[in-house]
Amino acid sequence: MNKEKHFSRNEQYNVYVESKIPKTKDFPTLIWAFLVGGLICVIGQGISDILMLIVPTMGIEEANTWMLIILIFVASFLTGIGVYDRIGVFAGAGSIVPITGFSNSITSPAIEFKKEGIIFGLCVKMFSVAGPVIVSGLVISFVTGIIYLLF
Amino acid sequence: MDIFLTYLKVFCVGGFICMLGQILIIKTKMTSSRILVLFVCIGAVLEALGLYEPLIDFAKAGAIVPITGFGRSLAKGAIQGLKEMGLLGVFAGGLTATAAGITCAVISAFIFALIFNSKTKKY
Amino acid sequence: MGKKMGDQTIAFLNKPRIVGNYSIVGKKEGCGPFKDYFHYILKDDLFGESSFEHAERKMLEQAIGCSIKNAGMNINDVDLIVGGDLLNQIISTSFTARYFDRPFLGIYGACSTMAESLAIGATFVDGKYLNNVVCATGTHFSTAERQYRFPLELGNQRPPTSQWTVTGAGSTVLRLADEGHMITKATLGKVTDYGIKDANNMGAAMAPAAMSTLISHFKDTKTSPDDYDLILTGDLGKLGSEILMDLMEHNGYKLGKNYNDCGQMMYNNNQKTFQGGSGCGCSAAIFNSFILKKLDEGVYKNVLYAATGALLSTLSTQQGDSIPGICHAVVIERDSKVGE
Questions:
Q1: B38 to chain A nearest CA, in Å?
Q2: Is the pTM for the entire model greater than 0.95?
């Protein structure tokens, strides 16, 4: 078949398919993302405030780091018992964007690929989802530092 | 009253950042890896431009807990490292600032992966 | 009269018959509208095994074994097992086949595997090269999900155009016999690609392939959609089957009430699968339970079963390639002696 004809046929078909895709109600998912995301942040703030109450010597930076550690640990646990993916079904980005989502994306492949062995399954695949986050984060932090060095 | 207002700010800013992510998912069909990568980069760039610190002063955990806060820590670490150690600090700073979070994520993933097995999704 | 009709269709003049069948599905599918038709419903998706891959093999093993038993045969009577699945290097089917110690042909037609194996099996039987051929295929949601998509525990949202891979397996035994529903024709499909790149919209990627095969079939056999009691596509899902109906109408064939799709039939609306089921197991399980049962009861007299497959891999998707589709069709005619 003529390649150009092929191309225009495919273009038409893609446009047609796009028009056929059912329009989902976006609004409820936005609200859920807002509520769940907000709630996770409020829990974080609560943890950090309580920590500073209990340990008066703790500075705000230190308390925030502890808060992140606790959130990451809890999210990892919730992933393990199979609760976090159910929150994700309705919360969407509300449970992906907070640091808990980062923890979920490290724990979930680790659990999933355990069957292929501790080294080549669990350890190798652990970063199959979150790897790009760490790589891109480190690259951009390095670039930021270099730019500050030059200017 | 003050504390209520703080928590309201935390809730709204945190929720708003997540909602931005959800809009991106709906509009661009991005997968969660891409969303996380994008938000880390946005956080780092905002920090480099000096815009993220005011947001943290305003919203506290509402700006720290979202993954943009992770990007901010990475950028902040590199800048601080530069001030303290020069070029070597640029290399070491980012990871130093986020070491606790990453290590905790890896350790807890390792522990829970050993304990739990994967389960079929219901929905 | 030759056995080839028109361009892509084979006529089976000796009429291979379906003498045994078996279907097995997972828990979620067992809550769907066909729960009373399946032969066996898993109580948990691990099926007592250590991994989902092993569970998939065990399902296939049970499907093949029990279909042979239902045909009143012994495993040594089987001349050939034809089958495939979705996993890389079709490990589920070939690993299962080693337990049976009989000749085996592994095929890959993605979700069209059931129709493809029926066409191949019927050809061997009709040509009298072999006496008894087993055609089998199966998929498991959890193995397909981790191969094609994300880890199960990842808290992501499935897009609204996505389909749910069916946990299930089906097996059919073919033989030249005096009794049983007959496979009379098969139309072998062409790989068709209309440039859909979204791996979460498989229905749209496969619908043109289904259209191509169905139109060839109607032209080759000089039939029309009204000549069949049921035209059943494999796993286009709700969106895909709407697209197929539009495409067919555009080409002058109207698919009416006698058209349905295994993907959209598989689940109830409240099971949150969006567009319905997909995977080899989807049409294999429905074909080997509901369809053959309804043929037994005489509700249908002839069925055009066109299973569709999306020939993608994670690699091709990541490299930004479009998704080619394929569709094979077989015609099953009712044996009026059955059920009397």
A1: 8
A2: no
Average pLDDT estimate for C296-307: 94
Q: Which of C312, C305, C295 is nearest to C327 (CA)?
A: C305
* Assigned domain for A53 exists: yes
Task: Count the helices and strands in chain C (H runs, E runs).
Answer: 10, 15
- Write a three-state SS string for B79-107: HHHHHHHCHHHHHHHHHHHHHHHHHHHHH
Q: What angle do CA A7, A10, A16 make, to 5 degrees?
A: 145
Q: Please check whether residue A22 lies inside any domain of the structure.
A: no
pLDDT at B11: 96
10 Å CB burial of residue C77 (0-12, 13-18, 19+) is middle
Q: Which of C112, C123, C117, C119 is nearest to C63 (CA)?
A: C117
Cβ within 8 Å, pair C152-A20: no
Convert the pLDDT of each residue in A80-138 to its tens digit: 999 999 999 889 899 999 999 999 999 999 999 999 999 999 999 999 999 999 999 99
Q: What is the pLDDT of residue C330?
A: 96
Q: Which of C14, C17, C9, C41 is nearest to C28 (CA)?
A: C41
Residue with tokens 């807002």: A34
Report chain A's C-alpha Rg in angstroms.
22
Q: Which of residues 279-308 of C touch B (CB under 8 A)?
A: none
Give the residue extent of every domain in chain B: 2-115
CA-nearest residue to A86 within chain C is C155
Q: Which of C142, C154, C167 sits opposite B32 (nearest CB)?
A: C154
- Which C residues in the span 198-257 are in contact with A, Cβ-Cβ below 8 Å? 201, 204, 208, 239, 242-243, 246
Domains of chain C and any CATH numbers: 16-175 (3.40.47.40), 181-333 (3.40.47.40)
Pairwise CB contact (< 8 Å): A14 & C195: yes
Counting the structural domains of chain A, the total is 1
Domain residues for the domain of A101 are: 27-150
Per CB-CB distance under 8 Å, the chain A contacts of C160 are 21-22, 24
